[in-house]
Amino acid sequence: MPTPPHAPTRTEQHDPRYATLDGWPAAAVLDALLESQMSGVAAVRGALPALDRVVAEALPRLRRGGRLAYAGAGTSGRIAFQDGAELAPTFDWPEDRTVFLMAGGPAALVRAVEGAEDDRAAAEQAVAVERLGGNDVLLALAASGTTPFTRAAVAAAKERGCLAVGISCNPDAPLLHEADIGVLAETGPEAVAGSTRLKAGTAQKVILNLLSTTLMVGLGRVHQGLMVDMRATNAKLRERAGRMLRTLTGADAEAAARALAATGDRVKPAVLVLDGATAAEADALLATHHGSLRAALKERRGG
Q1: DSSP 8-state code for residue 222
Q2: How far, CA to CA in Å, does 145 sit from each of 70, 109, 150, 173?
Q3: How many Cβ atoms from other residues are within 10 Å of residue 289's Cβ?
C-alpha cells in the first residue's frame, strides 16, 4: 500500500485570509506581506526564555575554545550561513571556530540541491568530519522542524557531546524535542502557503541575530555598544576604528591614530594603550580577562 501523505505542518498550511491574494492590487499585497513580516518578528518574543538558556549553556563552552556550528537545509541553511559568515568581520570571531553543515554542501547556498534535505547520512557524515564535540554549540534550523538532514545533524552532534539547539517555527516540531534546547517562534501559515522564506525565515534570522550577538557580547567582543573587535580591513573600517577609539577615550585624532598603529588597528588594546599600558601589557590584560575590555580597564585602574 502507498504511504499516506503527511498532514502539513503549521508553516505549510494554507491561510484562507490570502486566498485571493493574486487578485489584490500591489499596494494591498505589500501591506499584507509587511504585516505578516511584523508578526514573524513578534513571534520571537516567546522564544526569549529559551534563548536565555542557550546563552547560559553555550558561553562556558565557547570560552573553553568551542566552536559555533550551524545546520540547515534550503532557506534555513542559507539564513544560518548568513549569520555565521558575519561573525568574523563584525566580532573578529575566528573562521576556524565557525562550522557550517549545509544540506547539499556549499553549492546549495546558491541553488537548490534536490533531495539534499532528506539525506540523513550526509548530516551524520558532516558532523563526524567536523568532529563536533563537548565544547561546541550547534544551532540547527528548520522552519517545519521535520527536516531529516537537520534532525540527523542534531542527533549525531548530541551523541558526540555537543550542545544541540533546535530552532523551529512549528509548535509540533520533532526537532524541538530532539535537541538539547528547543527554540520555538510560532509563526503559523504563510501568506504564500509553504513559502517559509517569508515570516518564518524572518523569525529565524531575528533569532540568530539575537543569539549570536548576545553570545559575542558575553565573550567580551562588544564594549559600550560598540563592536570593538571589528576587523579594520579597509579605509572605511579604519576610520570607524578611530571614531570608536575617540568615543571611548576622548583622545584626539592624532593620539588615537598612534595607539591604533601600535596595536595593529585593534581597538581594545588601543584603549588600554591610551590608558597608559604598553601594547604587550594591553594584550596580556585582555588575555587574562578573556577579552573583556571592561574587566581589563577595571584591573588596570585598581577597581
Answers
A1: -
A2: 15, 20, 8, 4
A3: 16
| Helix, strand and coil in the chain, % to nearest 5 | 55, 10, 35
Residue 3 has a pLDDT of: 42
Residue 59 CA to its chain's centroid (Å) = 14
Q: Are 80 and 100 in contact (CB under 8 A)?
A: yes
Give the pLDDT score at 9: 84
Q: What local confidence, expressed as pLDDT, does residue 108 receive? A: 93
Q: Per-residue pLDDT tens for 173-215? A: 999 999 999 999 999 999 899 888 999 999 999 999 999 999 9
Give me the catalytic one of 12, 35, 57, 86.
86
Tell me the C-alpha to C-alpha distance, in Å, between residue 288 and each of 66, 222, 264, 281, 283.
Answer: 18, 17, 20, 11, 9
pLDDT of residue 12: 82
Write down the pLDDT at residue 303. 66
> Which positions of the chain have pLDDT values less than 70?
1-7, 303
Cell of 222: 562588544
Q: What is the pLDDT of residue 302?
A: 85
Does pTM top 0.90 for this prediction?
yes
Calculate ∠ Cα 132-219-154, nearest 5°.
Answer: 25
Distance, CA of 137 to chain centre: 11
Q: Is 215 in a helix, a strand, or coil?
A: helix
Distance CA 217, CA 227 (A): 9
Assess whether 86 carries a catalytic annotation: yes
- Is 159 tagged catalytic? no
CATH number for region 235-300: 1.10.8.1080
Nearest to 117 by CA among 47, 175, 199, 182: 175
Domain ranges of the chain: 26-218, 235-300
Give the CATH fold of the 26-218 domain.
Rossmann fold (3.40.50)
- Which of 12, 117, 178, 190 is the catalytic position? 117
Residue 286 to residues 36, 267, 279, Cα–Cα distance (Å)? 44, 12, 11
